[in-house]
C-alpha cells in the first residue's frame, strides 16, 4: 500500500514498511515523482512508513513511485497518482 494526501504545495506519503524482502532487509526507499517537485527526499527510511514532502506546484497532476532497496538491489515500485490542491 502506497498512498498520498496532497495539499497545495506539500504531500504526505504513507506506506506499509517492508521489514524483510525476498533477498534481505530493506535499507531505504527511493521516492520519485513526475513531474519532479523542487524538493524531494530521495532515500526515506525503511522504518518510518510516512513522509511529508514539499516543493510541489498547486493544481498539478503527479505520478510518484516508491521503490524498496536492499543489498541485492531494488524491488518492484509501488505507484500512486494525485493532483495537488488549487492555490
UniProtKB/TrEMBL annotation:
Q: Where is the Fibronectin type-III domain?
A: 1-87
Q: Which Pfam families match?
A: fn3
Q: Which domain of life does the UniProt lineage start with?
A: Eukaryota
Q: Where is this region: Disordered?
A: 33-52
- Bias class Low complexity marks the residues at 33-51
Q: Kindly provide the name given to this protein in its UniProt entry.
A: Fibronectin type-III domain-containing protein
Write the lineage as a comma-separated list: Eukaryota, Metazoa, Porifera, Demospongiae, Heteroscleromorpha
